[in-house]
């Protein structure tokens, strides 16, 4: 009985393995491209096109930072208080209101400074200016009854923190690699 079950499983596995077609990388890429269509062309290009050998001008690991010319778009005023700050592929918006500037963005780290910080300045918005609020009962109010509110922008501070963290991690990696090379040199001299 056990021999019959084993023989059946071997025959069944042989039949199913001969019936399945082997998928190639090109077939997966064409399926992904068909699914992406024109709505997700940027995502398809970033995720499905194999990187070229070597690092880009931005250095670093993986695909690296693309050249500025490939993604940069000029900021523009769209409406009374609505501003476009995005890249050629991704959108970022700034809304200027009485309480300050609201930035709605989903950009890569490499584009944040050029598109958001520099873009705000190009369209005439300065995120470093203090927001003034009329509150004469506040002890910090000036003679006119206005209070200057903090000009700390969480988005900018988080971006600066990420950049500092990545710089620290890169420097730490350099030290680790240097130590490893020095240790291998010492081992060779023994």
Fraction of helical residues: 40-55%
Rounded mean pLDDT score:
74
Largest sheet: 4 strands, antiparallel
Query: How widely separated are the two ends?
Result: 65 Å
Q: State the order of secondary-structure elements, H for helix, E for strand.
A: HHHHEEEEHEEH
Radius of gyration: 28 Å
β-sheet strand percentage: 5-15%
How many structural domains can be distinguished in the coordinates? 3
Sheet with most strands: strand arrangement: 1-2-3-4
Instruction: Please give the count of helices.
Output: 6
The tally of beta strands, per DSSP, is 6
What structural category do the secondary elements indicate? alpha+beta
Q: Could you name the ranges where pLDDT drops below 50 across 5 or more consecutive residues?
A: 3-21, 54-62
Tell the overall outline.
Answer: flat
């Amino acid at each position: 009985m056990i021999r019959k079950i084993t023989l059946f499983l071997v025959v069944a596995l042989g039949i199913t393995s001969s019936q399945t077609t082997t998928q190639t990388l090109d077939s997966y890429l064409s399926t992904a491209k068909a699914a992406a269509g024109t709505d997700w062309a940027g995502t398809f290009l970033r995720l499905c096109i194999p990187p070229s050998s070597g690092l880009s001008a931005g250095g670093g690991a993986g695909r690296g930072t693309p050249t500025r010319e490939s993604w940069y778009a000029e900021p523009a005023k769209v409406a009374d208080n609505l501003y476009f700050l995005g890249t050629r592929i991704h959108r970022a918006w700034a809304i200027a209101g009485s309480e300050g500037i609201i930035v709605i963005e989903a950009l890569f780290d490499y584009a944040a400074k050029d598109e958001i910080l520099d873009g705000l300045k190009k369209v005439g918005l300065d995120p470093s200016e203090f927001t003034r609020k009329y509150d004469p009962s506040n002890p910090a109010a000036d003679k006119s009854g206005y209070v200057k509110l903090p000009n700390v922008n969480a988005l900018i501070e988080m971006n600066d923190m990420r950049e500092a963290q990545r710089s620290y991690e890169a420097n730490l990696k350099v030290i680790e690699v240097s130590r490893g090379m020095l240790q291998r040199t010492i081992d060779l001299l023994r």
